[in-house]
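Milestone M4 deliverable, item 7.
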Amino acid sequence: MVLSLVHLIFLHVNGSRNSLGVTRINDKVEFHWFYLLKDLVSFLLLMFFFVLILLLIPFVFIDSENFLFVDIIKTPEHIKPEWYFSFAYCILRRVPNKLGGVIGLVIRIIVLILLPLITKRFFKFNDLLRSFVVVFHFIVFFILTWLGGCVVE
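Output delivered:
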């Protein structure tokens, strides 16, 4: 939002330039009506498809496990988190101590934050090794995500 405001301020101060170099008014396209109608048609078409999916096949994106009856006596053995929490679930499931699991999650997030700094600092002149470290990090993340979605045995 701030960048949009800065952009508008610069547009107001400096004005808009023609990047194509077209000087004749007849060769120009009016910005307001042309792009407004184009965006409006795109938005309405997208909303039409969303409503069509919502009305014709509303349960296509919902997991089938949500339709099972609840048994309050027994915890289900096939509990599976959403895909974006699977890596954290795998780490928490692997560490038997609750505090150790939380420390493992914190270390994972710290590594995720520090990865760009580590690769720039220690692998400054070796792009191949830096690429290997980043790819290795993503492979570990995807393996943890896959293992977090597997059934507990």
